[in-house]
Amino acid sequence: MKRVGFESSFAIAEAVKMANIDVTSAYPITPQTHIVERIAQLIADGELDANYIPVESEHSAMSGCLGASAVGARTFTATAGQGLELMHEVLYVASSMRLPIVMSVCNRALSSPLSIWGDHSDVMAVRDTGWIQIFAENAQQAFDLTLCAFRIAEDPAVLLPTMVHIDGFHLSHVIESVLLPEVDEVNKFLPKFHPLYALNPSKPLTMGDFATPDLYTEAKKGQDEALRNSMKVILQAWREFGGLFERDYFPVETYRTEDADVLLLTMGSFSEVAMGAIDRLREAGEKVGLVKLRLWRPFPFDEFCQAVAQAKLLIVLDRAISFGGPGPVCSEAKAALYHLEKKPQIIGFIGGLGGRDISVEGFQDMIHRGMDKAEQGKFEEFEIFGVRG
Amino acid sequence: MDKLTEIRWHGRGGQGAVTSAELTALAAIKEGKFAQAFPSFGPERRGAPVLAFNRISESEHIRVRSAVTQPDIVVVLDPGLLYIVDVTSGLKDGGALIINSSKKLVDIKLEFGGPWQLAVVNATTIALELLKVPIVNTTMLGALLKVSDAIKLDFLLEPIEERFGKLAQRNIEACKRAYEETSVAEPSPTSKKVERAYAKESWPSWQELAPGFVVTEPGNARSYRTGDWRAQCPEWNHDRCIKCGICSLFCPEDCIRPNERGYPEADLYYCKGCGICARECWTQAITMGEEVKE
User: Do A215 and B218 touch (CB under 8 A)?
Assistant: First the structure.
């Protein structure tokens, strides 16, 4: 294990190298470009023995990944924002065909107005595509969770594509220190990929067939069960990872939530900033804590309810707008808690859109503003934090 | 809720069952009634068994959109279907079963009689004579008019004219002649449906499907009896056949093989009766004859 300075994008490329992928089929897009550039470099330099398929669009990038994964290749790609949107229909095919592709998504706002900066609009648009979706908060996590993603996705009991989300710029372009494991340690954690089914001319089978109304429902039921059941493997993989590398990951993680009356819920790199706000408020004697959603799909209903049920107030930050509806994470939180007798009140904020920063002080303000609103009974769907006018 | 008449049409892709249902609904609507026509949506191809449905109500908008499973009237456009599809499934007592067949009413009754009106017309012959094609959609409408007052000829004329243009008159003739030639047997309340063994469809549970809906037995189309779709059958005249094999090359089903004497022969399990072999044969050794499945 050695400690190095790495941009998060390069840390992901390093994880991809250590995972010894067979194929990447990718198209550059800001703020993801550094990942695939770095992978191209690693391949060109002979440090990674893989095929890089340069394509003309993200739709083709994901289609290329489908083909590669279908023949049993360990497959990786990366994209962001508009690129993820262009992949959209193929994302469903990847999960429906149970192809364990791993993809980094450098979360980016959607046009228009054109914004290359970070938010979670792209994530929310692909929420229902059937991929496992994991959020990283820093470069180390980006590295760790990318390695874990291969292990989870390729598990014979899972066989589902997996996205590792990192916030565009706020994380993708930040240089931090990263602890790199040795290759043989990684190999212990990440076995070779043995596909359940693979396209092979000498042993033909059909993938991506069509289904009449008599079969489609059963096909979808099977797919949903697979995504729900992946939870067991995710927990097991993270447990083993923790055992080997001494960094622990959970579907829902909490920070200073013991006997907290007020909880803030965040996803992604803003979570670490919010931790700073929690520290300050705790120092001032306020009973506040932070809940971080690491696993977005499958949604960890039990773990989430357990983490927040005892609080009086839950403040949810969404980094995406569902136009005309509630914030997507907030809406999920409400749905998860609905059946519980004891549950917190919920105040929703939308913020950090299109790269808008939220500072430690900003999170302190947000928490206080949420508490005020709850006291005044202002339970509207959400408030856009810091919007002018 | 007022009286609802439900009709189920059994045909093959290309025979016009869907057109029959559409014209029926248009005639009913023209008469001032409320009606629906819809096909069983699916990847049907020419010759494959298809369904079409009607609902007709005297005075109310019809809300239900599901397939008709307990019809008042069943119309069968292709006699070959009688042996592969359970056409009387769900047919109400006192309803009507209308069949296109060259057989006599008494003979059909032995097999398909029941507590329903039975009507038989040789629609294929009428269509071939008047329309020069074995498409019996308008012809079978004549038979429907004979057994049911759900629609009336006067209101059917305009939809037929709009639909067929120059060919409308001949279609109306076919319809009228079928009306005249349809023979009807009244239901006998004591008679029972003759039970036949039809291939039952059974579908797997979600647990039984392979992950990712992978089809693990390639080439399973081999088991589909596409020969069931055939309305016409290729016949070889060995005096003209030069064994060139062109028929075999052009057969889209790849079901033509030389027999032990070297003459090409169609595997009737798969032959859909498309007629391409007959059209491509240089020496005109192949003719398409009427399919005799009855």
Answer: no
